[in-house]
Amino acid sequence: MTLNSVFLGRLIAIGGNEDKANELIVLKRVVHEIGKTKFRVGVITTASEDPEQRGKDYQKVFTTLGASKIDIFNIKERGQANNRKSAKAIADLDLIFFTGGDQLRLTTIMGGTRMFDAIQEHLVNGALIAGTSAGAAVFSDTMIYEGKSEDGLFKGSVLSTSGFGFVDKIIFDTHFMARGRIGRLIQIVASNPTCIGVGIGEDCGVILKGDGVAEVVGTGQVIIVDGCGIGISNIMDIKPGEPIAVENVRIHSLVDGYGYDFRKRGFLTPSSLSMKGNP
Q1: Chain-centre distance of CA 138, in angstroms?
Q2: Phi and psi at residue 31, in whole multiples of 5°?
Q3: Other C-beta atoms within 10 Å of 36: how many?
Q4: Could you read off the pLDDT of 92-149 as tens digits, one per residue?
Q5: Structure confidence at residue 210 (pLDDT)
Q6: pLDDT tens-digit profile of 197-237?
């Protein structure tokens, strides 16, 4: 069975808590994927409760990694996101980076604004977008924004809304292993079996290049939850708060160098990824 996933462009979704001081494996790969030795970065800190500090953190990292210019966008309200000057500045960036925090803050402040439209257009035109934690969760068209890990397989415990829609029929969850979020991703896939769930561990990233193939980078794990083979499920018949029964959920675990073909719903080894032209 194939999945007609759509990636609007080049994306890197990071699971959060990526190394910013030592090996910098994930962030070095982000810079590598820009494809330029001289590059400009825009850091959007909207999701963070402490945007100024997050901006300083990533300014230091990207300076270390060789950025020629770094713009920090501490967008705290929709009026700022509708600023024409800020929206125009997006077109000059080679990398747009969304920091972590609260994904609902990102969507409510930036969704439908001039800056968002400029970001989406720039993505389609070839810019690289990366996001960590909440900044990655917003990539999905269906976005998880709340749900306790321990209640993940009880109906109604996982809340979702529309994300930025940079990918279609793929749902990202972050801090996945550290916070035990497998139950909530199974629930969201059981409710939306046409979608594939992607749970990204900390210090780990998923690289999407528009060909339907993803590559994993970093020290953590990525868990793929595929519901296309679901047979029996009680989720339609039970009341909110009751436990979910679901049959035949398919799960893959990926680590650095492995990949996944979303269109063919297939696990990829490092050698098979190389054959598809990935490093």
Answers
A1: 6
A2: -65, -40
A3: 12
A4: 999 999 999 999 999 999 999 999 999 999 999 999 999 999 999 999 999 999 999 9
A5: 77
A6: 999 999 999 999 878 999 999 999 999 999 999 999 999 99
Residue 275: band (very low, low, confident or very high) from pLDDT cuts 50, 70, 90: confident
The amino acid at 216: V
CA dihedral of residues 248, 253, 257, 259 (deg, nearest 10): 20
Strands 95-98 and 69-73: unpaired
Burial 240-263 (b: 16+ CB within 10 A, else e): eeeebebeebeebebebbbbbbbe
pTM, whole model, 2 decimals? 0.96
**90 Cβ neighbours under 8 A, 6+ residues apart:** 42, 96, 115, 118, 119, 122
> What is the pLDDT, as a whole number, of residue 6?
56
> Which of 115, 67, 124, 64 minimizes the C-alpha distance to 95?
67
* Residue-range domains of the chain with CATH: 9-270 (3.40.50.880)
Whole-angstrom distance, CA of residue 11 vs CA of residue 119: 12
pLDDT recorded at residue 1:
46
Confidence at residue 9, expressed as pLDDT on a 0 to 100 scale = 86
